[in-house]
Amino acid sequence: MDFESYIRDIEDFPKPGVMFKDITPLLKDPLALTKACDALMKSLNGLKIDKVVGVDSRGFIFAPMLAAKLDAGFIPVRKKGKLPYETISESYELEYGTDVLEMHTDAIQKGDRVLVHDDVLATGGTASAVCKLVEQLGGEVIQCNFLIQLTFLKGADKLNGYPIESLLKY
């Protein structure tokens, strides 16, 4: 399936000079949504996964779908202050400052094999912070997968050799 035809470019969002890759056209088409999930599953090549970590907020779309297909648990990673139970946290750099991601302290068990999923790999700061959270709790990051990878931003460089898969690369 031509997933690229379902991605809409939005100029100057969220700030001037940024070309935002909007995935909502793909999400609203049931066939494209299903096929994208199937393609993300195929990229796992039968790997054994215990938990799928989805990153706030667009990572929450495909991560639970993947978890259900993998017979794995879904773990949300949220921005600071959004999770109700005890958390661990990891700060990361943005273009314009820093932010903090959190995960529940009981989300990952030692030895869990973990898939990290988000919609876009850009600079890699978010995904790198999530991988650190997983490892703090004793999990093993098996793969990081994304709908879109913006290769020109070199986010893969921050992922320290973790296997990376994406449906689309720009």
If you had to describe this structure to a student in words, what would you say it looks like?
Pathway: Purine metabolism; AMP biosynthesis via salvage pathway; AMP from adenine: step 1/1. Its EC number is 2.4.2.7. With 170 residues, the protein is an alpha/beta fold. It has a single domain, classed as Rossmann fold, CATH 3.40.50. 25% of the residues lie in helices and 36% in strands. It contains 4 helices and 9 strands. The chain has helices at 24-28, 30-42, 59-70, 125-136; strands spanning 8-11, 19-22, 51-55, 73-79, 87-94, 97-104, 113-121, 140-149, 164-169. A 7-stranded mixed sheet has the order 5-6-4-3-7-8-9, sandwiched between helices. The radius of gyration is 15 Å and the shape is globular.
From the structure above, extract its key features.
170 residues; alpha/beta; Rossmann fold; seven-stranded mixed β-sheet; 9 strands
CATH architecture assignment name: 3-Layer(aba) Sandwich
**Please, what is the average pLDDT?**
96
Strand content: 35-45%
The tally of beta strands, per DSSP, is 9
Strand pairing plus helix content: what structural class?
A: alpha/beta
Provide the helix percentage. Answer: 10-25%
Terminal-residue CA separation: 17 Å
Whole-number count of domains? 1
H/E topology pattern? EEHHEHEEEEHEE
CATH fold assignment = Rossmann fold
In the predicted model, the low-confidence regions spanning at least 5 consecutive residues are: none
Shape summary = globular
State the strand order across the main sheet. 5-6-4-3-7-8-9
Largest sheet: 7 strands, mixed
Radius of gyration: 15 Å
The CATH class is Alpha Beta
Instruction: Count every helix, treating DSSP H or I runs of 4 or more residues as helices.
Output: 4
